[in-house]
């Protein structure tokens, strides 16, 4: 038996929580079927024990040693069956839990990668994190409970058949009593569902708040805002706590119902069975069996209540998952192809010639960012690449050939060399050359293990300028056909900026490069400068020529200075 079924890597086209859970079940139907089989054997082994025990009591009453030995051997066999089936049931329970949970991780992570820049625009970080933190556990739990839940139903049916065959009134009492108890807890499920949904929503917002505070902690300390944000976080966490208490209130009623309702049934069945035994309608052994079944039924009944609870939680969790899976990227690709060449944004008129280092200076930073996003196909736009509409190319090909590197990019945790050489195919000399171009050699030299140093999450041990230079080195190592850099030197000193500008042109010789910047040091070292105002190209040419001929350009790059 495999320890874990292979998770389906595909993304389901599903719009309802129930269908998502059903889709998960179908993907692991073999493991589910095996688990249900072992769970059924496990429950049946327990269900038959009171009947066998009753037969043994009757054999003792009749002083029949032969029958006593037979029923004792059967009882031993049932114990061994329970032990084996219990072990296998638990193994398959864990298998199904993990398969459903981590299949959810796979499909959501895959779809999040496909959504790209669309996801953070439509969903908060906290809500996405909640899927991996709690929702996968509830979805896995909904698959796990199917095993014991199905087996408990079979066990209840088996017990009912035995009771009816032994005593019709007692059998009918159990037959109608069990469904009535299941119906009795039904009204609790709707408020539980509602409160769990509200709790998860607040939890997602709190996760977003905590992520924002952690990422901006340095800024908060600089402006003295730690206490203010700590108070806000405390208020929101209290709202989450109160919502959790409301959920726990309904769950406590469910837990109480799991004890109280079966207890009532036990008392009624035992009382009636005792009266029948005194009247001679049933044997002492059957009375023992009836009492044993009355106690035994607590387990299946609690399992059914637990199944209702876990399936409800799974339904709530699946709703969040399909919310992510139901999103579509803002941009989609086609099946076209191009040999590359001129990259042109028709709306603004910005044109990148192959092999040239072009600078884009805009009256406002937002205009440059909008053009970079269109050229990189992160937002829709009328852009051509080698005469072919960029929208006709497959998105993976666009991402492979056109790289937009801005200051919103993050450094991930892990070995520094792996974080710089994300494709894993650069030699050590190429890594060193990229670091030199980005003036980041001193950063690596200062680290205890150099390129083998493990970087913390978001590269928080580095200053803003150091992070910017490392991100530039990472973009250079990717070596795309077209590299679009958005303000790559805004956080470095003037001397480093001048060196980077000189080295960047040499490093990108023969490949198309666009640098969105208003820095005169960088603009003066590019082949061609394009000035945009109002979203359109207003002037273009060499930097020094534009300074002399375009008042608007000169005012932007010199910031009004002579």
Automatic annotation (TrEMBL):
Which regions span the lipid bilayer? 31-49, 69-88, 145-164, 259-282, 288-305
- Quote the Gene3D superfamilies the UniProt record gives: ABC transporter type 1, transmembrane domain (1.20.1560.10), P-loop containing nucleotide triphosphate hydrolases (3.40.50.300)
Task: Quote the SUPFAM superfamilies the UniProt record gives.
Answer: ABC transporter transmembrane region (SSF90123), P-loop containing nucleoside triphosphate hydrolases (SSF52540)
Which UniProt keywords are given for this protein, alphabetically ordered?
A: ATP-binding, Membrane, Nucleotide-binding, Transmembrane, Transmembrane helix
Q: How does it sit in the membrane?
A: Multi-pass membrane protein
Compartments where found:
Cell membrane
Q: Which InterPro entries match?
A: ABC1_TM_dom (IPR011527), ABC1_TM_sf (IPR036640), ABC_transporter-like_ATP-bd (IPR003439), ABC_transporter-like_CS (IPR017871), P-loop_NTPase (IPR027417), Type_1_exporter (IPR039421)
Instruction: Please indicate which superkingdom the organism of origin belongs to.
Output: Bacteria
Q: Where is the ABC transmembrane type-1 domain?
A: 33-313
Q: Which GO terms describe its molecular function?
A: ATP binding
* ABC transporter domain ranges (all copies): 259-559
Output this protein's name: ABC transporter ATP-binding protein
What is the protein's species of origin? Nonomuraea typhae
């Amino acid at each position: 038996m495999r320890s874990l079924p292979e998770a389906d890597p595909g993304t389901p086209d599903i719009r309802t929580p129930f269908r998502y859970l059903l889709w998960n079940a179908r993907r692991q139907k073999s493991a589910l079927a095996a688990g249900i089989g072992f769970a059924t054997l496990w429950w049946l082994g327990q269900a038959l024990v009171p009947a066998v025990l009753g037969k043994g009591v009757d054999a003792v009453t009749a002083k029949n040693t032969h029958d006593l030995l037979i029923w004792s051997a059967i009882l031993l066999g049932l114990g061994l069956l329970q032990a084996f089936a219990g072990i296998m049931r638990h193994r398959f329970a864990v298998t199904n839990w993990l398969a459903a949970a981590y299949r959810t991780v796979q499909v959501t992570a895959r779809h999040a990668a496909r959504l790209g820049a669309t996801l953070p625009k439509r969903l908060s970080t906290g809500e996405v994190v909640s899927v991996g933190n709690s929702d996968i556990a509830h979805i896995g739990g909904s698959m796990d409970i199917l095993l014991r839940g199905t087996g408990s139903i079979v066990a209840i049916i088996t017990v009912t058949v035995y009771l009816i065959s032994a005593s019709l009134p007692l059998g009918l009492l159990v037959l109608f009593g069990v469904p009535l108890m299941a119906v009795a807890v039904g009204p609790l499920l709707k408020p539980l569902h509602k409160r769990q949904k509200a709790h998860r929503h607040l939890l997602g917002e709190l996760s977003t708040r905590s992520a924002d505070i952690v990422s901006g902690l340095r800024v908060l300390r600089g402006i003295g805002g730690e206490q203010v944000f700590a108070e806000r976080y405390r208020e929101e966490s209290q709202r989450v706590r109160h919502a959790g208490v409301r959920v726990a209130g309904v769950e406590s009623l469910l837990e109480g119902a799991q004890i109280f309702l079966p207890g009532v049934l036990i008392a009624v069945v035992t009382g009636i069975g005792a009266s029948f035994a005194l009247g001679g309608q049933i044997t002492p052994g059957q009375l023992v069996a009836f009492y044993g079944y009355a106690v035994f039924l607590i387990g299946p009944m609690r399992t059914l209540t637990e199944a209702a609870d876990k399936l409800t939680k799974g339904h709530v969790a699946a709703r969040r998952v399909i919310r992510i899976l139901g999103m579509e990227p803002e941009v989609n690709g086609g099946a076209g192809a191009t040999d590359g060449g001129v990259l042109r944004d028709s709306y603004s008129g910005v044109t990148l010639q192959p092999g040239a280092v072009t600078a884009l200076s805009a009256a406002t930073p937002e205009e440059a960012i909008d053009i970079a996003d269109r050229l990189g196909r992160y937002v829709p736009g009328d852009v051509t690449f080698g005469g072919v509409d960029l929208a006709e190319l497959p998105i993976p090909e666009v991402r492979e050939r056109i790289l937009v590197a801005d200051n919103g990019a993050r450094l991930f945790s892990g070995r520094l060399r792996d974080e710089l050489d994300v494709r894993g195919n650069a030699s050590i000399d190429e890594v060193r050359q990229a670091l030199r171009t980005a003036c980041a050699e001193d950063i690596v030299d200062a680290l205890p293990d150099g390129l083998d140093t493990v970087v913390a999450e978001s590269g928080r041990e580095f200053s803003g300028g150091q992070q910017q230079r490392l991100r530039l080195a990472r973009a250079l190592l990717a070596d795309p056909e077209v590299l679009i850099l958005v303000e790559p030197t805004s956080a470095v000193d003037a001397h480093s900026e001048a060196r980077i500008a000189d080295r960047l042109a040499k490093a990108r010789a023969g490949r198309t490069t666009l640098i969105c910047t208003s820095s005169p040091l960088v603009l003066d070292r590019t082949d061609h400068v394009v000035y945009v105002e109002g979203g359109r190209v207003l002037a273009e040419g060499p930097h020094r020529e534009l300074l002399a001929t375009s008042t608007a350009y000169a005012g932007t790059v010199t910031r009004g200075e002579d």
